[in-house]
Design a protein that fits this description.
seven-stranded mixed beta sheet; D-Maltodextrin-Binding Protein, domain 2; 2 domains; elongated
Length: 425
Amino acid sequence: MRRFLVLATVLALTSQAATAGTLERIRDSGTFRMGYRADAKPYSYQNEQGQPAGYLVDLCLEIARALGPDINPQFVRVAAVQRFEAVRDGRVDILCDPSSITMPRREIVDFSLPTYFDGAGVIFRSGKPIGRFEDFAGKRIGVLEGTTTEQTLRASLGELNVKATIVTVRDHGAGLDLLPWPTVDFARFGAIETVPLSRIRKISGANLARNWAMIPHVTQHDDADITELEALRVQINKENAASDKSGAGIKLTMLAFLIKAVVAALKKYPDFNASLDASGENLVLKKYFHVGFAADTPNGLVVPVLKDADKKGIVQIAQETSALAAKARDGKLGPADMSGGCFSISSLGGIGGTAFTPIVNAPEVAILGVSKSSMKPVWDGKAFVPRLIVPLSLSYDHRVIDGASAARFTAYLAQLLGDMRRALL
């Protein structure tokens, strides 16, 4: 059973393309009316001549073919402001539009909305289960040709022994208008070895590529003085070790303090504890505080999530993050352990580096990168004194967060780490 959620960029469920009433109209008339925005950009779902084009249109045509050989597909131009009404009032049967996710489900099944499926074969859309792979046995599933999604989908169907037809369609450069990935015979230049990517790397790689391409990233860098905080952490660990001769006592990590400080910053700046909804037109402000942290495992990167961090003390946070990290290393994390995150932390402090740009973990809007701390001379007004400084790198989604807000967030976070008593205020 697969443990990890896999992102399928496009999953077309052709058997559910319309409700019974709409399907009856289509078969009676012999036409399948597919609406597309008259003012759409050329790279999206129409070409420069204003004709329907792109992978969404290809998927609509595949649905039309699946409905029957006698069905005649027709494209209907609709104005952007009228596209939803066009489906509601019956002018079109389906909308070739990524924003069709906002359409009523009884009238349309969106096939552009990212859809997730887990190891048990349960398929999720917008975080809600909509069926199992077994429900689509004998059906047609659309996916972009040559993508990691296609490879993972084929492997998953094979593992679950589900006989479904995968319809591959070409991207036509939709969305990004990128050149195709170069095909190179590396053996021409010297000896090579081909090593298959682990399942985790395939999954995380697809997610990272999507997040980097779709989210306008900006990274705010700052420093935090953790001299007193580190001294406190070391002292508490010494006291715990002295009182517990077995050596099984909990060790406080800097990550636990970071999570506690991040929660306080999220409360002060709630836009960072938010997500854009599927339409991209609304911001969902979360009243809970689940913090994910990147865990490096032999098989690749995973992000377990600490739930309700605001309700836990430093010691409990240290215990639970340690347990989650151990599960990650052992490959025992389940989907529930990696879902529901509001904000993520990626710490390279135990390895090195002075700064980096972490990739936002969609649908979150920000992620904190932490580099290796080091002693630096800091002017105290009279002289330079040695202080332990940790570099902070906050990447954020510029659609939601502006530069001034990011600077305030990191400045406040640095204040908290400099004096954790502020987290109690």
